[in-house]
Amino acid sequence: MPKQRVEFGCKWFDVVVQDDKYFIVKEPKEINGAVVVGVRRFDGVLHVAMVEQYRPAIGESSLELPRGRIEDGQDPVDAGLRELNEETGYTAKPESAQIIGKLHTNNSLLASAVMIVFAEISDTPQGELDGEVQVVSYYKPEELFGLLGTKITDSHTIAGLTFARQRGLL
């Protein structure tokens, strides 16, 4: 059994030292977030909902899939649908929502994972935006795959798009 001690702790995470040589960030939940690949059709053509928001850690805006924390008592699908609504103003068709993958965003440092959710977006906006997002836009899947590594560098987004494509959803 590895020897562990908490070096630093706050309400969001603990920094744990394991065997006096590894630093691990542990969040309260093993699955702490959900990323949602939300799709809708415009004139019969599939598009993916994307949001642009400023990320202080990288000092710039990031084009990414809607995502967020899983609240207490919430399952990953419900969290993904809530985030879709909060960040885009749209709801999803509940029967279309499904988990399509699991992602450890940095498994050398972070102990937690996020779930990737796929959902079809309803046609009518039904919600107030949470104020975190600067821009909501829709892209054809092939446009998004052309932006990977340049305009899209967020690992959650790259994984979400890849899982959806692998499953034939994009």
Automatic annotation (TrEMBL):
Which residue numbers delimit the Nudix hydrolase domain? 28-166
InterPro entries in UniProt = NUDIX_hydrolase-like_dom_sf, NUDIX_hydrolase_dom
Report the sequence similarity comment from the record: Belongs to the Nudix hydrolase family. NudK subfamily.
Q: Protein name, please?
A: GDP-mannose pyrophosphatase
Q: Which PROSITE patterns match?
A: NUDIX
For this UniProt record, the keywords arranged alphabetically read as follows: Hydrolase
Cofactor dependency: Mg(2+)
Q: Biological process GO terms, please?
A: nucleoside phosphate metabolic process; ribose phosphate metabolic process
Query: What's its catalytic activity?
Result: GDP-alpha-D-mannose + H2O = alpha-D-mannose 1-phosphate + GMP + 2 H(+)
> Pfam family of this protein, just one?
NUDIX
Answer yes or no on keyword Hydrolase. yes
